Each structure stands twice: as C-alpha cells, then as structure tokens.
C-alpha cells in the first residue's frame, strides 16, 4: 500500500467519524463550562482510541465467526452508512438531541456518535481487505486526527458558534454517503461476478 492510499483510508475513516459535526453538540456547553468540556473531550478521545483499535484488530474474525462474506457485509454496512449520512444531512445527527454530561462522554458521544455503525463497518472492511495491522494504523491515525479536531474545536467554537460546524458536519455527510455508495457498488459488483462466473 502506498502512502497516498493509506492517507485515503485515514481520510475516509475521519469523514465517517465526523468529529466536526460532533463539535456542534458540545459547542454551547464549551462556552459556559470550558474546563468541564475539556475533561469530557479527553474521556471521549480515550474511548475512541480503544474502541476503534478493537474493531480494527478483530474485523476479520468477526466476519468469520458469523459466517458472513465480505461482500455481503459491504452491502449491508454500506446501506446502514447511507441511512446514517442521510439522517445526518436532514437533522444534523442520527441520534437526536442529547444533554452532554460526564456520564454520556462514552455513550453516546464516543459511541455511537463517533465510533458507531459506520466506523465499525469501515474498520471491519479495512481489516478484512488490508489486514488488521493496516486497519489498526488507520484507526490510530484517524483517531489522532479526531482528537486534534475536538481539542482545537472546543476552543474555536467559543468564537464562531455551533452553526458553521453544523454546516461542515452536513458536508462531511456527503462524503460519508459517497463512501457508502462505493461500498455498496463494490459489494454488488463482486457478488454479480461470483454468480456469473
């Protein structure tokens, strides 16, 4: 795998995690309680590192354990990812409004908002196609980018507000929809080749 291809995988995973869109959730509280929000953000970041690493390393084993083919998973996962992106485009989030508390730093902020069905799907596919070590490296790189975005973002949101972040989050949803489309088309194409060969 070339460095450019690796960066492409990291970019895809970062877009699916969509930390910019999540900043709009903690934005209002960052103005009122910046220290509290920083504490929550650190907990979220640690959880994201742990969860993404687990799915990156176990992706291939999960498919084998349930007897699911990679292409079937691509189609199913791509469909779920498309649904999430469409809901995010319409409402800004696929879980509705939440109150940000320390107890909710892991659920729902870390998961399912950042490491949710889309992220898990992408990591399992990456692990099956490129191997668990490449998937792990991708997960760690994307998680680091998410960490930087969140830590810098909670400072910036105090000055620009949450509205620009919501707009950027919706734009990222278009990228997610594109990734979902590619997953579905690849899965369908490979299945058709199997059936006709």
Automatic annotation (TrEMBL):
Belongs to the UPF0056 (MarC) family. Its main location: membrane. Keywords: Cell membrane, Membrane, Transmembrane, Transmembrane helix. It holds the Pfam family MarC. GO terms for cellular component: plasma membrane. The chain crosses the membrane at residues 6-30, 42-67, 73-95, 107-129, 135-155, 167-188. It comes from the Archaea. The lineage of its organism: Archaea, Thermoproteota, Thermoprotei, Thermoproteales, Thermoproteaceae. It is found in: Cell membrane. This is UPF0056 membrane protein. PANTHER family: UPF0056 MEMBRANE PROTEIN YHCE. It is a multi-pass membrane protein. Coiled coil: none annotated. It comes from Pyrobaculum aerophilum.
């Amino acid at each position: 795998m070339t460095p450019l291809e690796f960066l492409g995988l990291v970019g895809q995973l970062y877009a699916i995690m969509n930390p910019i869109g999540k900043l709009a959730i903690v934005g209002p509280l960052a103005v009122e309680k910046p220290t509290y929000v920083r504490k929550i953000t650190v907990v979220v970041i640690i959880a994201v590192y742990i969860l993404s690493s687990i799915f990156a390393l176990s992706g291939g084993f999960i498919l084998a354990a349930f007897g699911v083919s990679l292409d079937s998973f691509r189609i199913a996962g791509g469909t779920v990812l498309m649904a999430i992106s469409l809901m995010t485009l319409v409402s800004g989030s696929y879980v509705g409004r939440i109150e940000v508390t320390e107890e909710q730093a892991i659920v729902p902020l870390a998961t399912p908002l950042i490491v949710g069905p889309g992220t898990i799907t992408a990591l399992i596919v990456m692990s099956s196609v490129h191997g668990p070590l490449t998937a792990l490296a991708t997960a760690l790189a994307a998680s680091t980018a998410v960490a930087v975005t969140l830590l810098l973002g909670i400072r910036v949101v105090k000055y620009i507000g949450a509205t620009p972040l919501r707009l950027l989050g919706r734009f990222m949803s278009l990228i997610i929809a594109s990734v979902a489309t590619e997953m579905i088309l690849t899965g369908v194409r490979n299945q058709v080749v199997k059936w006709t060969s």
